[in-house]
Every structure is written in C-alpha cells, then in structure tokens.
Amino acid sequence: MDGLVVFSSAVLSLSALIEEGRNGFWWQFGVVLLSQAALMLRRRAPWALLAGIVAADAVVLFATPELGSMSAAVWFALYVVALRVRTVWALVVTVAASLPAGAYFAFVYRPGEEFLAQHGPFIGLVASVSVILSNLVAIGVGIVVRGNRIHQAEVRAWAIRRAQLASVQERNRIAREMHDVVAHSLTVMVALSDGAARALDRDPERARSVLGELSSTGRAALADMRRVLGVLRADGGSVGREPTPGGLQALVDGFRAAGLPVVLTQEGESLPDDAAFQLAVFRIVQESLTNVLRYARGVGRVDVLVAREAGAVRVGVDNDGGTAPDGADPALGTGGGLAGMRERAAIFGGTLTAGPRPGGGWRVEAELHWAEGDR
Prior knowledge:
Its EC number is 2.7.13.3. Pfam families: HATPase_c, HisKA_3. This is histidine kinase. The chain has helices at 2-20, 26-37, 46-63, 71-82, 87-108, 113-119, 122-202, 204-234, 247-257, 275-295, 336-347, and strands spanning 262-267, 302-309, 312-319, 351-356, 362-369. The protein is α+β, with helices and mostly antiparallel strands. Strands 1-2-3-5-4 form a 5-stranded mixed sheet. The protein is rod-shaped.
C-alpha cells in the first residue's frame, strides 16, 4: 500500500518535469523524488511530512514555475494529517499548507505576455483558489474517513459493552436463581433435620415422616441444581422450577412441613398468564419465607397475601417473629436475597419494601405491574 501511494504521487508530481525534458531541472527532480519517498513515513511523522512536502513544493514552485506545484504529494500529506486531528485543526492546517502555492499563483505567477494582456491577474487568482479548493477536498476526504473510523470504533465498543452488559445480566439472573433454589432448599432441609432430631426419641413415626420430607426436599434441590447447570451449559432457557397451578400452595405446604406456621391468602383473579411474571411472584414469596425460616425466632404466625388488582399484583409476607433479616448473623446471609427480590419487582415496573412491623416482626411488600390487556 505504501509503495502504491508513493508511486501514484510520484507519477502525478513528476509528470510536468518529465514532460519538460530540459537539462537544468535535475536538482528539482531530486527534491521532488525525495519528497515522494518521504510519504513512506506518513504514519510515523505526519506533521513533519506535511511541513517538508509543503516546503519542497514552495522551493520547486518558486524556482522552476514551469514544473507547477507538487499538488498530489500535498494532497496525500493533508489527507494523512486529517486522519489524526479534529476538523477545526484540519481546516487550519489546510489554510496554512495552501499559503505558499496560493501566494505564488496570486502574486508571482504570470502567464505569457499576450495572454496576460487579455486576462490580467484573474488567471493567477483562479489558480490560487483552485489550490485552496483542491486542498480542501483532500482534507475533507480525510475528515470523512476519520469520522467513519471513529463511528466504526464506537459501534464496536458499543457492541462489546452490550455483550458485557448482557453477560452481567445473565450472571445476575443465574445468581438470583441459584440463591433462591439453594437457600430455600437448604434452609428447609436444615429445619427438617433439626425437627427430626428433636422428635426422634419422643415420636419416631413423626421423625420418620420428617426425614421423608427431608429426602424429598433434597431430591427437589438436586433437580433444580441440574436445571441450573443445564442453563449454564446450553446458555438459554429458564432456571429452576417453574411455578405450576397451585405452586404457591405447594410452596407454602413445604414450609409448613418444615415447622413454619404459614397461612396463604389469594385475592382476586389468578395471576396473569405470563410464566416470567408468575415466576417473579413465586420467587418473592419463596425468598421471603426462606428468610423467615432462617432468621426469625419465636414466630407464631406468617401471613402470605397475593392479591391481583387492576394492572398490578400485590404480594405481602408478614411474620410476628423477633429477629429481622437485617439483624441476622452476617454469616447466615449476604443481603443478596432482598436485592434479588427488588430486581424481580423492578423488571415488571414494581417496587419492593422490607422492614420491621410496628409491634415486632418483619414485613415484605411488593407490587408488580403488567399491561392491563395481558392475561
């Protein structure tokens, strides 16, 4: 590519000299040839290249006007500089680079006497303007190419950033599901194993029943983990158990079997026929009950409310225990569950609040929205 640039510029710049064919122009020939060879350095020192070519052009132009200007070399140099500077500076450089040739044609250049008598200095002025315009075209091409390169770089950077954000969102989604699946299952299993240990001597049949629940919960947790791993391998699909008709009741029954006194109340119509929406409600209830089982002490009652209203679903989980999630041992949790619930609510344009109740206990309230026309 460098060789092609030098060759093209040399042919254009030396054509007048070769056409002239006189013996007194060999030093000018050397100056022109060196300036063309200097184009090889255009990537390393574009400013020095432009200054050198403009100076060589002025020397050749003023010393041997018969040869004309080395316009092609100047154009190439201006193009290279335009690729590296802002538009304002590119225009300033163009004006500066046009001064020697423009001044020569405007004030020094004189055509033949007969021709001059007819047209006067108008020809020189036209030539001067032509130099400036041709240089502006060269710099304009460089500005357009630079703009395209910047745009392409921005598009690539945007694509990379978008891919990174998608990756972060996917990791966060998987992390939420992993937290919900693992925390819920392990918490229930710990509660069941503690209950079985306490009932082992007093009520062996009850202990055996609790151990059966423990086994079922463990198998369900393993199945959920396999689904999570399947998503990681296949890079798609949904993670964990999808809610099914009666899924909330089955969820509450599982916590009740683990010793949590839960009462489920459902008001209004059934949830919208949207798997992602139903999963969000399911996970919010699941995480809230998991937190109660893990952190609350002395719980006498837990009320779960799922109410469908016009354009929204309200979810509430209240317990009268003595310890709230924020006051729990940090080793037992990181706060990721509450953050995950808030993210799930935000996906559907909703909000979630969690805090102590007046008189003791803890309350989680969420509101999720959907388009009124959806079912």
